[in-house]
Amino acid sequence: MPSYSAFLGHQPHISIAELSAAIPGFSNPVVLESSVVLFESTAELAPQDIDMLGGTIALAKKLNEQPKSLADVPHLLRQQFAGIADKKVTFSFRCMGLPPGDVKKLYHNSKAFLKSFNLPSRYVGSERNPAAAVLVHQAGLLTDKTGCELTVIGIKDAKTTKMWVGRTIAVQDVEAYTKRDMYKPVRDTRVGLLPPKLAQVLLNFGIWLTKDSHVGLRASKETLTIFDPFCGTGVIPMECLLRGFEVLASDMSEKAVTGCKKNLDWVRKEHDVSKKDVKAEVWKHDARKAFDIKPANFPDVIVTEGSLGPALMKQPAIRDAQSMSREVDELTEAFLRNVHATLPGVHVVMTWPVCQTSKGPVFLEHTREKLHDCGFQLITPASVRSEKMPRGTLVYKRPDQFVGREIIILKAKTK
After folding, report:
1. How far apart are CA 228 and CA 291, in angstroms?
2. Of the candidates 47, 59, 74, which has an alpha carbon nearest to the alpha carbon of residue 18?
3. Average pLDDT over every residue of 309-335
């Protein structure tokens, strides 16, 4: 099976869980320094696959020939430019587990080695940092015959450092995410802003829920219908359109519904997604009240950002956090009971708020205790379960946030 490396985002535990759910036949994961995972897949990954992986910064495919030491890497780089003559080439290295001094020497030795074959070259990146994503794309390191980035990883054991080398096949398009996040027509900063990358992670968990086996990213070629009943201004529906998934979206706020529609129209125009090819329906609705959707039109899965409670400007006291959680608990339980009653058999992926107080995090406890009564079973991809997840869930949070997100994956129980 082909082997790959993935450089992970700021929430590596979530990144690995997403890969486990999305990559066909994901197996034999080896996590290095919490920032890179090596793994095997039953399918060949394509460069465009990274556009559907919110938690992965870069992907590399392992070369058939592996170096015995770092001194062999320039030779492997030269092989990537086979058939190139009398043209200037551009290269870069994405390294981990190697001293900066060794990486600096690798750049210089590689340039000299290429020159010995009459290949003038330039390199981007440095011994401290790999080339920025924007520069990787601009320099043609992934697409041009005269460009190449090698991923070089040093894996240390008791006595030696084993080398893993692959060719970088994809790097996250940071500018595209920024544009969707910051420059869409309607952006409501008064509520928690769901990052597009996290929306993609949630979608991949939703796709995983609909399948009996790992088909993951290949589901992008199928027609799925995703329902977001707390759609806000449409972050999740926007990502659905980009993947060709039909959209059902609702919100109890008329303002949110209007904003969602405007943002979906913007995505269609920016990415040439026609209404004929990918349908979307957005309407005003209270998620606690019965959904008027006929069984023939049931969504494949619900993927949504649940209520995170009121916006907080400072760290909440424990009493205030508990009070807020009780209110969100009531809404969330009513929503899940409604789904079980009016959309039986439809699975749910959603986020619950986690209030960060000086005395520790405050979770939604009541709804969790009532999940069985609500008709759902809490699950997690088997390959990422560990003692570090006592609640069996993944938590997304940043150091500056007062409210984090607990990712809840719910399998509908059959009546």
Report:
1. 12
2. 59
3. 92
